[in-house]
Write a structure and sequence with these properties.
402 residues, alpha+beta, Aminopeptidase, Alpha-Beta Plaits, 2 domains, seven-stranded mixed sheet, four-stranded antiparallel sheet, 9 helices, 15 strands, 36% helix, binds zinc ion
Length: 402
């Protein structure tokens, strides 16, 4: 069946590139992917699918392909949203929507899944089961990403989905490689806001006030002790404060300062302890200066946990597409957040990382995800379409044999 996947992937390749470039030129931010969703639905409706649903989980789209033979149901997921970033690439298909950019490769994910749908439709009669296509909005909108709404609207049910496959374009890996590993493959990503309160006074008479800025600086330093002294040495975590704003005028002692940051963890037990550790550090440090600190800890996406049995099936499929040498060695878990985790909490799931660094570009020269110069190698899209199709077919076969 793999020969057919290759044949049809080549046939649809110009369309993959064309769709990708169109999506890249017309990015939309989370929960506003209306034109993107319409574009996806229009293309799906031209295919011999059994059902295409729009307005799922907001502006998501789902579709169902019933194979010619009975069997399990596999779901394939792509995300459609872009980021509020001004694109700095010089390509002729750069964003036409100023201030918005597909800097996380979700345009590629959507284009690849559209072509995979076309390829699998060509093979409809011989498919041993059904395929659900999920195009979700708002992956970037933590803590309430698009995945939860899609699940609430039933994308994993009727008929019940047995396994979910997803992937992400991965700039540190070269084109022609893919990373598939069991267990945690993303971080739990939580949002932290600390409000430090003091008392305003004239800048010349600091003893009559309580300096919220100084207390906030002490809080910032105290937070650094969490990863180094609270998290067990074999575990890892990140506590990063991205913004710090305090005071109103150069000659007034600040009454209030706000620190805003992110917390990334991999082990659920470390994640559980984080709010307490942060609260102790922040309150203690602020109180040392007579100020007070209020901590708001909002839980975002949990870790994506790959099911070992699905990882094994996906590796088998990937070996056909990339060759054994194309299976990347096990990587350290990237501290990114990813709302694919919600599907993985409900069903056995697998999230793969697809190499997209062009040949000849060194890893240090490849712009990262969320960078204003990030662009995936267009050749990676072909690998991606083949992999999605091969993984879907192999999953249907292997699960059907059980
Ligand atoms: Zn992203
Ligand atoms: Zn992403």
């Amino acid at each position: 069946m793999y020969d057919k996947i290759v044949k049809f992937e080549e046939q649809y390749r110009p369309e993959t590139i064309e769709n990708y470039k169109h999506l890249h030129m017309h990015p939309e931010i989370s929960y506003e992917e209306r034109e993107t969703a319409a574009f996806v639905a229009e293309r799906l409706k031209k295919l011999p699918l059994d059902e295409v649903k729009t307005g799922v989980g907001g502006c998501g789209v789902s579709a169902q392909l019933r194979g010619g033979r009975p069997g399990p149901v596999v779901a394939l997921r792509a995300d459609m949203d872009a980021l509020s970033i001004t694109e700095k690439t010089a390509v002729d298909y750069a964003s036409r929507n100023h201030g918005v950019m597909h800097a996380c490769g979700h345009d590629g994910h959507t284009a690849m899944l559209l072509s995979a749908a076309a390829v699998l439709c060509e093979m409809k009669e011989e498919l041993p089961g059904s395929v659900r296509f999920i195009f979700q909005p708002a992956e970037e909108k933590t803590p309430r990403g698009g995945a939860q709404g899609m699940i609430e609207d039933g994308v994993l049910d009727s008929p019940r989905v047995d396994a979910v496959l997803g992937m992400h374009l991965w700039p540190s890996l070269p084109t022609g490689e893919i990373a598939i590993q069991p267990g945690a493959v993303s971080a739990a990503s939580d949002h932290l806001t600390i409000k430090v309160s003091g008392k305003a006074s004239h800048g010349a008479i600091p003893d009559e006030g309580i300096d919220a800025n100084l207390a906030a600086a002490a809080v910032l330093v105290a937070l650094q002790g969490i990863v180094s002294r609270r998290v067990p040495p074999r575990e890892s975590a990140v506590v990063s404060i991205g913004t710090m704003n305090g005071g109103t005028k150069y000659n007034i002692i600040a009454e209030e300062a706000v620190l805003d940051g992110t917390v990334r963890t991999f082990n659920p037990s470390v994640r559980e302890m984080m709010p307490k550790w942060i609260e102790q550090a922040a309150k203690g440090a602020a109180e040392a200066y007579g100020a007070s600190a209020a901590v708001d800890y909002v839980k975002g996406y949990p870790s994506v946990i790959n099911a070992p049995e699905v990882a094994e099936i996906a590796r088998e499929a990937a070996a056909a597409v990339f060759g054994e040498q194309g299976l990347a060695p096990e990587m350290p878990i990237p501290p990114i957040g990813e709302d694919f985790s919600f599907y993985a909490q409900k069903r056995p799931a697998l999230f793969a990382m697809l190499g997209c660094r062009p040949q000849g570009v060194q890893p240090e020269d490849m712009p990262a995800l969320h960078n204003d110069k990030f662009l995936p190698d267009l050749k990676a899209l072909s690998y991606g379409v083949r992999y999605i199709c091969a993984a879907a077919v192999t999953t249907l076969k292997r699960l059907g044999e059980k």
